[in-house]
Amino acid sequence: MATSTENISLANDTLARRRQQNSTTLMRRQQEVFAIVPEIEEIGYEITSVGAKYTMAKLTKNADKAEELKAEMEALSKKQKDLLVQNGFAADYLEPVYHCSECQDKGFVNGKICTCLKQEIIKQRQNMLTALSPAPKTTFESFSLDYYSDKPDANGVVARDRMASIFRYCKDFAENFSKDVKSLFMYGASGLGKTHLSCAIAGECLKKGFVVMYASSQSLFEQIEQNKHNVYHILNDIMNCDLFILDDLGTEYLTYYGQSILYNIINTRMINGSPCIYTSNLTSDKDLQKKYGEKIASRLMGNCQRLYFYGSDIRPKL
Ligand SMILES: [Zn+2]
User: Fold this and answer.
1) Structure-derived torsion over alpha carbons of residues 44, 49, 52, 58, reported in degrees to the nearest 10
2) For 150, which of 33, 133, 146, 160 could close a Cys bridge (C-beta 3.0–4.6 Å)?
3) 214 C-alpha to center of ligand 1: Å?
4) Cα 184 to the chain's mean position, in Å?
């Protein structure tokens, strides 16, 4: 995956900051523990001293001695852990602290880029796109059905029931997410929770280590128009992420150029079988065709699982 150097260096800075924080945390913990249980620090010195002897025994090929010293180190280490637990600390309280245990915050595992660094690069790119990363409050837990009417409307439809079924669908989608699930097209009037649920899905997928990109349609196409020289990088990320969310289709100002880019995104991800979530306030095929033309409209409507959000704007009640 081609990446612009600026974003890689920002992502590396983040990892370097994490490594710095890790060692600060560990030092702070040591000071805390040693002040309460000085014996743990003494055992630490003993382990270092036995460790040096062990290295010598290994170097002089004195296998028996090495074994003996190794056992001694293990016993000391166990004693240290026992003391920690007896004094109310976790047994691993003085182990190195990592944000990512896979790569120990180095960013690479066996020469391959780690998911944490990949996500950090995407995050930097998202900042560049001024596309907000899913807000922490927009989770499944914070989604409430209470805001939807439980009374049948003129057509006999109960908005709350409809939304309950959409909510379940989205939760299942997030729980069973894989790189080849069917795309979603969430549509319906403003203020019915489309952004909330798409961000909730994004949050779950991010937690599982998938690379997710979120962009509001308006800001994405503004960025694309302003950065025509850099569109390759923007598109490359969109094409290669595991899940791409394009929020609020229909609100953007689309030039002919923007329209061809949009077609490209939708079509390429469709051909690659890569999942997307599109949300839109355009509620009919006719409106979609009018705004985007037949080719884009048919791909959006025909190749995605459609979820129609029903009810009246819930936002004023929030
Ligand atoms: Zn990592």
Assistant:
1) -100
2) 160
3) 21
4) 19
Q: Name the pTM for this structure.
A: 0.62
pLDDT of residue 219: 85
Cα-to-centroid distance, 297 and ligand 1 (Å) = 39
∠ CA 301-291-257, rounded to 5°: 105
Identify the residue with better confidence: 32 or 211. Answer: 32
Indicate the SS3 state at residue 307.
strand
Kindly give the distance from the C-alpha atom of residue 81 to the centroid of ligand 1, in angstroms, as a whole number. Answer: 27
In the chain, at which residue ranges do the beta strands (DSSP E only) sit?
108-109, 112-113, 183-187, 212-216, 243-249, 276-280, 304-308
Distances (CA, A) of 154 to 37, 157, 266: 72, 7, 36
Nearest to 252 by CA among 284, 289, 215, 285: 215
**Alpha helical stretches, state H, 208-249:** 217-226, 231-240
CA of 98 to the centre of ligand 1 (A): 9
Residue 163 contacts residue 308 (beta carbons within 8 Å): no
6 vs 306, higher pLDDT:
306
